[in-house]
Amino acid sequence: MKTEIAGSPVNRIASTERKTKETAIFVEVRLDQAGQSKIVTDVPFFSHMLEALAAHSRMSFIIEAHGDIEVDPHHLIEDTGIVLGETIFKALGGLSGIQRVGCFSYPMDGTLVTAAIDLCGRRNLTWNVKFGHFTIGNLDPNLFREFFKGFVDGLKATLHCHEICSDNDHHLIEATFKALAKSLRQAVEPLGSNEYLSTKGMLDES
Questions:
Q1: Which residues lie closer than 8 Å to 12 by C-beta, 6 or more apart?
Q2: Closest C-alpha to 51, from 69, 76, 70, 34
Q3: Cα-flanking dihedrals φ and ψ of residue 108, to 5°?
Q4: What pTM value is reported for the model?
Q5: What angle do CA 16, 22, 25 make, to 5 degrees?
Q6: Domains along the chain?
């Protein structure tokens, strides 16, 4: 729930629990409190990327995510993205009173990735990130697209991720997560009022 003190939202905290036959996921998000994250998933490299997302967005995530990775990590990665996006949307309390848009280019050695996000109520992912044919931390990096797609679906957002150049796949996926984190931080920053940053005077929050 969003409340106001002197025009700035406070207590932007929410949690979501989702259980299916394939995954069991709990997420708590504190949008304005950094450094209090605890992340446990069945895929260590995925946990590492979620830790980077929390740290560079200056948010705190409590995430416990388990799934049928003996079948394929796909379900766990996609569903975690959905639940994390949904929980951030709940913590915002809607799309009014925020900057709405963020964009950041993140460099990692010979890699550069740009992420641009619009918290607009329209779900869309434009993904221009290409990986090789080998694993990172025993994980197919191409599965990360499913995380980002689930994330924008849950958050009701439009997201563009563009690889400018890359020296290796580890740097590429990590730079993508960090670029998302920095752009997300910009987008959730308060306007100082409860207005929608739109000439229409509203955004689709359904």
A1: 2, 30, 31, 32, 91, 92, 93, 188
A2: 34
A3: -135, 100
A4: 0.93
A5: 20
A6: 3-188 (3.30.230.40)
Distance of CA 24 to the CA centre of its chain: 18
Which tokens go with 40? 């446990």
Here the contacts of 94-97 (C-beta below 8 Å, separation 24 or greater) are 94/2, 94/205, 95/119, 95/120, 95/121, 95/156, 95/196, 95/203, 95/205, 96/194, 96/195, 96/196, 96/203, 97/2, 97/4, 97/9, 97/190, 97/191, 97/193, 97/194, 97/195
Q: Report residue 183 CA to chain centroid gap.
A: 10
Residue type, 132: G
Question: pLDDT by residue for the chain (206 residues), tens digit each?
Answer: 333 333 345 689 999 999 999 999 999 999 999 999 999 999 999 999 999 999 999 999 999 999 999 999 999 999 999 999 999 999 999 999 999 999 999 999 999 999 999 999 999 999 999 998 889 988 999 999 999 999 999 999 999 999 999 999 999 999 999 999 999 999 999 998 899 888 888 888 88
Phi/psi at 107 (nearest 5 deg)?
-95, 140
